[in-house]
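Summary for the steering committee. One of the milestones for this cycle was to obtain a three-dimensional model of the protein with zinc ion bound, which we needed before selecting residues for the alanine scan. The sequence and ligand used are listed below.
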Amino acid sequence: MADRAPRLGDVIDDYCPRCRLLLNHDVTSLYGGDVAKVTCRTCHNAHDYRHAQVPPKRKSSKKEDKQSLLQQVLATMPKPPEPPAPPPPETRPQKRDLWAEVERIKAQRKGPA
Ligand SMILES: [Zn+2]
């Protein structure tokens, strides 16, 4: 396609990182005969010329990175402590029969008749 050197103001296809699409761009900067910067004709966002390369979608790899990172963290973490043993079945203190106690004391006080 490069039948002639790009010039300022040329319209070329490039990937716009803002639009996230391959769109027409104006050449706004040249460096050594190559396009250095372009301006999106759709959103007027100026950015480095990406040679019409659509970046690979990162979402999936990012997720993997995250997962592996999590696993790394988990691997370095100490093992969680064992859950505490269940408490022994509660032995309820037997409710004292207060009235029985009172009767017993009364009987003691009275003594044998
Ligand atoms: Zn754009």
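Key point for the committee: Residues 59-76 form the longest helix (18 residues).
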